[in-house]
Amino acid sequence: PPQIWCFMFSYLWIAFQWMARPSSNLTEFCEDFAKAKHVAIITGAGVSAESGVPTFRGQGGYWRKWQAQDLATPEAFSRDPSLVWEFYHYRREVMRSKMPNPAHLAIAKCESRLSKQGRSVVIITQNIDELHHRAGSKHVYEIHGSLFKTRCMSCGEVKANHKSPICPALEGKGEPDPSAKDARIPVQHLPRCDGSGCNGLLRPHVVWFGETLDSDILTAVEQELEKCDLCLVVGTSSVVYPAAMFAPQVAGRGVPVAEFNMECTPATMRFK
């Protein structure tokens, strides 16, 4: 029944302090939710914050002496693949101790229940932590990739990779303390492709600064947004493009958009 889902999203409302326009209210949201046949949920770092996932953003957001934008670039990987892999190995290992929080679980429950009613939910996330998957969500687009996928620099193969450590040389490496020494692992001992004798150097399958998003994923996301009749924006500041345009694009079609965030964002007053 719609009341069950309104209760569930009331939990999200309390957790994220729904920052809607003054004319909006929970009753209006429940009515829109009850009518929706295809719900698009756009999520960002805020939805994983309760799980203790480090963001490496803002003051204090450092790994050793670097911020993410110092290491998450093709140039940094080309210059020092050992250092970049230490950073991502650390992030992978940290994520093993993190669990989906009530927001991930509520979204997954919503998807499961609505599918039994002939309705659908799609999650479009900027997160690379796979917590939506671990919570049980099935229909997820990870537009920035995943910590637990690799891409071969030689053959281009993308594969899931949950090994711990991802290669023997990285075991025990990645200490974030500023005084930690770089491992300086020889490139031949870094993660390598095991497909058809390729043995090419692997990189994290994430979208780095200066790179474009996968065109196939973007096309699929555009198709989902074109057919959705309700859009939820959860835990994202809506300032990183192209994701920043997803909700305004939906609102431009006259589709209801509800924002769940801890504070007002640049998008708060844009949604109709």
Short description:
With 272 residues, the protein is α/β, with parallel strands linked by helices. It has helices at 2-16, 26-35, 45-49, 68-71, 74-79, 81-95, 102-115, 131-135, 215-227, 246-251; strands at 38-43, 120-125, 140-142, 145-152, 158-160, 202-206, 230-234, 257-260.
Q: How would you describe this protein?
A:
- The structure is a single chain.
- The protein has 272 residues and is α/β, with parallel strands linked by helices.
- The chain has a single domain, classed as SIR2/SIRT2 'Small Domain', CATH 3.30.1600.10.
- It contains 10 helices and 8 strands.
- The protein has helices at residues 2-16, 26-35, 45-49, 68-71, 74-79, 81-95, 102-115, 131-135, 215-227, 246-251; strands at residues 38-43, 120-125, 140-142, 145-152, 158-160, 202-206, 230-234, 257-260.
- The strands form 2 sheets. The chain has a 5-stranded parallel sheet, with helices on both faces. Strands 5-4-6 form a 3-stranded antiparallel sheet, with helices on one face.
- α8 links the parallel β2 (120-125) and β3.
- α1 (2-16) crosses α2 and α1 runs antiparallel to α7 (102-115).
- The longest helix is centred in the first third of the chain and has 15 residues, at 2-16.
- It starts with a helix and ends in a 12-residue tail after the last strand.
- 36% of the residues are buried.
- Mean pLDDT is 86; it is low at 1-5, 13-23 and 268-272.
- InterPro entries: DHS-like_NAD/FAD-binding_dom, NAD-dep_sirtuin_deacylases, Sirtuin, Sirtuin_cat_small_dom_sf, Sirtuin_class_III, Ssirtuin_cat_dom.
- It is found in: Cytoplasm, Cytosol; Mitochondrion; Nucleus.
- Substrate binds at residues 88, 91.
- Belongs to the sirtuin family. Class III subfamily.
- It holds the Pfam family SIR2.
